[in-house]
Each structure stands twice: as structure tokens, then as C-alpha cells.
Amino acid sequence: MARNTRTQTAAKPATRTAQNRQTITLELAMAVCPHGALAENLARTFGLEPVDTASIRESTEEHLALASQTLPLSDKALEMHLQRIVGAYVSSAFGAGQFYSNKVTQARELTMKVANEDRDEDRDGVSGFDSRAERARIFAAEMGLQAHALFAAAEGAVSVYAHLTGSEWKPYEAPSLAPNLSRASAAAQLGAFGE
Question: Does residue 35 form part of some domain?
């Protein structure tokens, strides 16, 4: 049996550092996702299927309301459950909006390269095929419509949250430990519960 001869270093205890995670709100998602008029313009300009925003919003509301009726949860437990679900919808829309913004930037950069008169590269791709810049613009438009659709779903989720709980949805923010609570005292307190 072969023996591992590497020297083992003493493992340092893992330390947690406070992570400053960005709180993702519906307003933040709205800022990066295409609005209705822009989505319509993208669909028309690129010949893509338009997004049925009202239908997406309505079906999301119906789905979440129906799912909530079948769950055997107290009012507070339902509110906590919906808090997480709605947060996922809003985060998804925000992520899609950021991805869309990145793809628009890439499409602009590729288009600017093609328009540059002083470059040595071929201007277009192989005859009969889309150029790389054109493919990038089409992909950015498709991602814009997807981000718009996901934002509509997030709006529906936020709406049904308010309807079912009677309060406005706010993103979850983890409570921070009290500054005077040290690890040692936290360990002692947990020890009081027994094994």
C-alpha cells in the first residue's frame, strides 16, 4: 500500500467574512430588463415572436395562487415560503437583464469593429451566412425578449404575494449577529441546548 508522504499543514479554522451581497429588488430588475416598448421594437426589428406580457404575468399569478392553496401552511409559513419564491423570480429577471445588457455591449463592439474602415480583417463572414456581428445582434435581441418575459413573471409573482399576504414584497435580508455576541458566547449558548 503506497503511503502519502506529503506533509500535512495544520488546518486553520475556517473564518467567515461578511459578504456584501446586493439586495435584488423589483426596481433593480426593472432597471436592467427591457420595458414593453423596447421589447416590441426588438420583436418587430428582428422578426421575433413578441412577448405576451399580460399572459405571462397572469399565468404566474394563477400558478402561485393555486400552489399556495394546496400547501398546508400557516399564514406566516406561507408568507415565508412566498417570500423565497418571489425572490427567485425577481433574481431570475435581474440575472437575465444583466445578461441581456452584456450581450448588447458585445453586439455593439462587434458592430463597431465591422464599421471600422482601417481594419485588416474581412468585413463579412462567408457569403450567404450572417456575420458574427449580426449573429450577436440577433442573440442580444432574443435575450432582451427573454429578460422582458422573466420580468413580467416577476411582476406577477410580486402581485400575487401582495394579494395572498396583504403586504408588499420586500427582498429578504439576513439579520446580522449582534456586534457584542462573540463566538465563544455563541458556542456556550448553543451548548446549553445539549447534544
Answer: yes
